[in-house]
Specification:
Elements lengths: L1 H17 L4 E6 L6 E9 L5 E8 L24 E9 L2 E9 L4 E9 L4 E7 L6 E8 L2
Antiparallel strand pairs: 1-2, 1-8, 2-3, 3-4, 4-5, 5-6, 6-7, 7-8
Length: 140
Amino acid sequence: MKKIIFSFVTVLFSLLSYAQIEGRWKTIDDETGKPKSIVEIFKKPDGKYYGKVVQLLIKPENANCVECKDDRKNKPILGMEVIRGLSKEGDEFTKGNITDPKNGKTYKCTITKDGEDKLKVRGYVGFSMLGRTQTWYKAH
């Protein structure tokens, strides 16, 4: 009986952890294909998910977000919250937004796991079909 309960608990935890996006993720530059930064995704007490830049792998043209329009304007990119307010809905994290510090634009955001070591991060305006998807990789 103990083996059955242990097996059930193990399977349950592996299923629950599969859909989690918390941790450090390597972003890739769309133009060069090279690793750009490390973003740490975490859950706040409000139950929503956020992500901040914890390491820059490519030196940006400007160290501050000069194009940002909100409270991030002229703030350093390193340490900046670029993902805000994602809610978990099934296997998807959605209803939040993502900001591109390079151009200061903020987009609606949806994130889904693609296996254990990849995230599909979709930023879009209006409808999800009007956007682009990046693959982020687990940072080790």
